[in-house]
Amino acid sequence: MGGSIFRKKKIENIIAEPEGQEHSLNRILTVKDLTFLGIAAVVGAGIFSTIGSAAYHGGPGVSLLFVITAVTCGFSALCYAEFASRVPVSGSAYTYSYVSFGEIVAWVIGWALILEYAIGNIVVAISWSGYFNNLLVHVFHIHLPDWLLVDPETAINAYNDAVKTLAGNTAGLTPEDLKNHRFAIEAYNAAPRIGNMPVFLNLPAFIITALITWLAYIGIKESKQSANFMVLFKIGVIIFIIVVGAFFVDTNNWTPFLPNRFEGVLKGVSAVFYAYIGFDAISTTAEECRNPQRDLPRSMIYSLVICTVLYIAVALILTGIENYASFKNVSDPLAFVFEKRAPWVEKIVSVSAVVATTSVLLVFQIGQPRIWMSMSRDGLLPKVFQKIHPRYKTPSFSTILTGVIVGLGALFLESGLVTDLTSIGTLFAFILVCGGLLVLPPVKKEPGKFKIPYINGRYIIPVLLALFVYLFRERAVTSFENIGNEGYQEVLFLLFLVIATLLTIKTVISRYSFIPVMGVLSCLYLLIEIPAISWLWFFVWMAIGLVIYFLYGYRNSNLSR
Question: Which of 35, 34, 48 is CA-nearest to residue 234?
Fold first, then answer.
């Protein structure tokens, strides 16, 4: 049992598998299409929504967070790029882990990717609904019934909170707070009922999921044309916002640059990193690329660089127009800063936000079915998941099932923990991809293939670890002295120090390459900054996945025969 669950696949066998399928995917994607898909996935809710929360905690210094995240993702992107060149098939980190670590690790990361894409898309669909309703109200002056725009839990919690607040002392509440509480009560009372239970559902989120699923189902050509158009539109709008916003910047708002020190900047890790997982989605389309070994690496790097520049510019513009403290509880920061200064820009932002989140939804709806398809090919999921439509050349059943899961989730669920859960799944995948290159036998550089340049980490990594320990010495000492009384967050910090030390020793002994090692360490550090409650739900999800693996995947795996 112990040896068999770590059985590995050979790269030559993986590459040959798609050729033996009854129907193959349609190879039409170029480097431009792949880059646009990456931008489509990265430039979405992060730049139109969560950047406000990150700015509130980090101040103008939140721009540094985008640099840190981009560098972190850059290490991972380079590792993804080499894997994509060596293993040019669908499956992303799942397939790469199957080659590097074996079946059980591949299953775990595949299960984590399912969480990443499914729950991530539920968040995006819910965000889209909010932007769409904002567009209807402020641009077209159309008001949908409130019970069609929100999930049950959010509506009921808002009602209970409003009743409790208004029943007490309201002297400290602003007129806006009073208005919002009364609105929550009116919406609750006006909702239709089944028995005594009020009915709430997020219908726009469900409808857009259904439409995007249909687009992903009918073909990659139609999907890429739609994505390319949406990317060009939203990049144009973002550049326009940066130019117009520059005229309203007050440089005094950039002082202090780090109002809550570096710890405040890191509080936005989950919100920011959630936006940076686009190049993972690119790798799932490997079997639809004309030249995956050349174009996948280029597109990953191009999309990462372009998106990072856009995010940094927007962060500086936002914190230059408004003081960072103004972004508390602001869900639409771009519209917020122009609301009083240039209301006409706010309307453009509303349209662009709808387009941006639509493109994110499309790319993720393309990615998840291809993960399932790869797992099914390996026998870890039933064969129906690998079925390819003879006409549309897409994984038909997997695409429909993805739409059903995301659509129902967007219809009834709230988006509370899911951003953190998505970030855990993504970072987990990045760590295994970077670590996978350390255990794979090295290969020589071949024409037309991407290979990470070897930089000996034997001396650099120990120096960087020593610098890290020095900078965080107070936290390390405090965590160690109070190890019995500390919260889970500090326990995770100490665990990171132990793993980082062991990996550094191994790097010195084995002369590991600098880039993969830094990819592992940087992603591992970002993981420990995610709240412990999200980790609890992540482990619950992993436990469910392992049960499914041992009940079905272990016995039906192709490698078990």
Answer: 48
Strands, E, within 430-534: which ranges?
none
Helix, coil or strand: residue 248: coil
- At 251, which amino acid appears? T
Q: Please give the mean pLDDT across all residues of the chain.
A: 84
The DSSP H or E segment spanning 184 is: helix 175-190
The position carrying tokens 């295994």 is 432
Per-residue pLDDT at 189 exceeds 80:
yes
253-264: average pLDDT: 81
CA distance 184 to 174: 16
What are the Cα distances from residue 267, in Å, to 65, 264, 393, 531? Answer: 10, 5, 43, 10
> Superfamily for 4-140+204-413?
Amino acid/polyamine transporter I (1.20.1740.10)
Residue that is written with structure tokens 């079925």 in the block: 387
Which phi and psi (to 5°) does residue 413 adopt? -95, 155
Return d(Cα 126, Cα 117) in angstroms, integer: 14
Kindly report the pTM of this predicted structure. Answer: 0.83
**Cβ contacts of residue 459 below 8 Å, gap of 6+?**
none
- Residue 244 is classified by DSSP as H
d(CA 86, CA 99): 11
User: How does DSSP classify residue 388?
Assistant: B
* CATH 1.20.1740.10 residue spans of the chain: 4-140+204-413
| pLDDT tens digits, one per residue of 29-69 | 888 998 988 888 888 766 777 777 788 888 888 888 888 87
CA-based max dimension of the chain: 73
d(CA 114, CA 376): 13
Contact 184, 162 (CB under 8 A): yes
